Amino acid sequence: MKRSERDQFIIDQYKNDEKMMVLIFTQWCVNHGLDPYVVYEEAYPHERKNNAITEALEQTVSKKESEEISVEIVQHVLQLFGNDDLAFVVQQYADAKSK
């Protein structure tokens, strides 16, 4: 594999992993009756509408069809991609729901 091919492979893999992170976050929101746009906006109020969330919502399933996704899993994948603010907001929602 040439250097440019390897670089492109790494970039493509990162993009696929990032899409999976957004899907996990979005499915967690669906499972908890939350609007992922609202949750995202709380973490990043100055950003535009996130098109990745729109794409991920097309792939989510109903809460009934979904496997359980723990808040720890969501936080972990968000933090892997540097979304610490979003992970914090997710934790706030989880804490509020458990009270």
Task: Give a short overview.
The chain has helices at residues 3-31, 36-43, 51-57, 71-80, 84-98.
Could you please describe the fold and organization of this structure?
The protein is an all-alpha fold and 99 residues long. The chain contains 5 helices and no strands. The model has no long low-confidence stretch (mean pLDDT 93).
Question: Any chance you could write out the topology, listing elements then pairs?
Answer:
Blueprint: H1 3-31, H2 36-43, H3 51-57, H4 71-80, H5 84-98
Helix pairs in contact: 1-3, 1-4, 2-5, 4-5
Globular, elongated, flat, extended or rod-shaped: what is the shape? globular
Poorly predicted tracts of residues = none
Percentage of residues in strands: under 5%
The domain tally reads 1
Helix tally equals 5
Share of residues in helices:
55-70%
Mean pLDDT: 93
Report the span from N to C terminus.
53 Å
| Element string (H = helix, E = strand) | HHHHH
For the biggest sheet, the summary is: none
Rg measurement, Å: 15 Å
Strand elements, count: 0
Properties at a glance:
mainly alpha; 99 residues; 5 helices; 70% helix
